[in-house]
Amino acid sequence: MKNFLKGIDNFLFRHLEDDYIRALKKECDGCETILDVGCGAISPIQYFSQTIKYSVGIDSFAPSIEKSKAAGIHNEYVLMDVMDLSGKFPENSFEYVVALDLFEHLEKNEGYRLIAMMEKIARGKIIIFTPNGFQKQSEFDCNPRQVHLSGWKVDEMRGMGYRVIGINGWKPLRGEFAHIKVWPSYFWSRISLLTQLYTVNHPKHAFALLCVKEKRTP
Q1: What is the CATH architecture of 2-212?
Q2: Of 19, 156, 178, 186, which sits 20 to 30 A from 128 (CA to CA)?
Q3: What does DSSP assign to residue 204?
């Protein structure tokens, strides 16, 4: 009976899981060079990095760089402050520049500065993934930089020319670290998956935002 129920669960919900990874992979399809800003230890790029000819991960936290190196996610790594980006990488030096789960860790003025730098370095796409609005998060993994300092909303990203995709389903169902916050979590995680069918095209109601700006058609 347990296997039967698991089979039904997989049939109904498996195709709705990992909406973020699928959307990100689709946006990066055909990319040959990518700069992963604030790559952390387990960048989502790992799920398709083998299809990218050359990728560079940068981060200011050495233990995260070492973990990512051990996993072989990127071809090269740079340990540096992301706010020094423009001094390290020339304009149009990468096809895509991404920042995934980074902007919420920056003060708002720093975020705007970083966007400007990313847009100069990229010659194709700029991709940003961040929670929808401010979402509290505390320090973890002995990394004080994991605290959230700002929130980013759909209208402001669209105002800067970004196309916005809703990720992780209906916002009220998730809390810190995107964990389901309503009990029983198993039931509500399935409800969250179903709401993704709506929020993907109505990002103002989504928990997280995948923001994409194209400087030219790749």
Answers
A1: 3-Layer(aba) Sandwich (3.40)
A2: 186
A3: G
